[in-house]
Design goal:
By secondary structure, this protein is mostly helical. It has helices at about 25-45, 55-75, 90-115; strands at about 10, 15-20. α1 runs antiparallel to α2.
């Protein structure tokens, strides 16, 4: 019976690595960081810990950007050791998508907030 040659790839130091990159510990670390980076914004909003809406929005945006990097490293296995490192085109594309996603989301939320009907009382409608 022949060994599965596609499952293990030799690394630069001569040891075999699993094709696809991550170990169970790596996935658990990524999952733990993702849960923490999701729970903190919920806590900030629900408790009003920062006291300022703009500061809370900025903190959530920064935590979202950090979470994107965590997902790229721990789940997509984008690091300097795999496939010759991050290619310049992939990195540029990722940065452009992050900027479009974050600024677009903030723009939509701002305009929804500005254009909502202020103080409309539904109890007066019959």
């Amino acid at each position: 019976m022949k060994a599965d040659t596609h499952a293990l790839q030799p690394s630069a130091d001569g040891h075999a690595e699993h094709h696809g990159g991550g170990s169970r510990a790596s996935y658990l670390i990524g999952f733990g960081l993702s849960v923490i980076l999701t729970a903190i914004p919920f806590w900030l909003v629900m408790t009003g810990a920062l006291g300022d809406k703009q500061l809370t929005g900025l903190a959530i945006t920064v935590l979202a950007a950090i979470q994107i990097v965590v997902h790229m490293v721990y789940f997509l296995h984008m690091n300097t050791r795999s496939e010759g490192g991050w290619t310049m085109m992939a990195l540029i594309f990722t940065i452009i998508m992050v900027v479009i996603g974050l600024t677009g989301s903030l723009w939509v939320m701002h305009h929804l907030n500005v254009n909502m009907m202020p103080g409309h009382d539904m109890s007066t409608m019959q």
